[in-house]
# Entry
Amino acid sequence: MNKLLFILSFFVTGLCANAQTFSDQALQQSVQQLNEAKTDGDYDTLFKTFSEAKTSEKWKANYYAAVAMYLKTYFLLKNTPEKPLGEFNEIAKKLATQALAVEKNNGEVNTLLGLIHTQKIRIVASTDPQKELKTAIGYMTKADTQLKNSPRLTFLKAEIAELSNNKAEAIKLHQKEVHDFNATDLTSGSPNWGKQLISIQ
# Structure
């Protein structure tokens, strides 16, 4: 009986790890390009690829389209902070919410939604930053029960600590996030985007 439970838990863990890998190789190659994007145009191209994809894995396409828009907004915040960015943040939120409607217990989708809400505070697009922060904490709490060693979740925790004026905790979490990104197993099938976020700090 114990052996059967072990095999089943191993199988379920394998399914969860590969939950965000596309069977379509062209889309999977686009996922790999998220860490290589250098301009807002690169993110626009990736966004278009995912948002217009004709695929049976629509929630994954929505998730990665949201990722592309989230990363584009972060890129623009760093390089052209005077540009209004609320529209891009809203597009990311809409697509991530659609992905969550299908994958309610997906820690990476919950993490992304938390990041989108903290980003809304950073781009000064929120009329109620405390409400956004509370919402981000809610997504972080859910993701924390669903994920282990996700560098994006560590980044979200650091963002929340920073926005809560807990600078010491934010520094500690940013250091952990660098370690987590460097320790990510790229062959596991789990998402590996977000290395750009390290250099933003």
Q: What stands out?
A: Residues 58-79 form the longest helix (22 residues). Confidence is low (pLDDT under 50) at residues 1-18. DSSP finds ten helices and no strands in the chain.
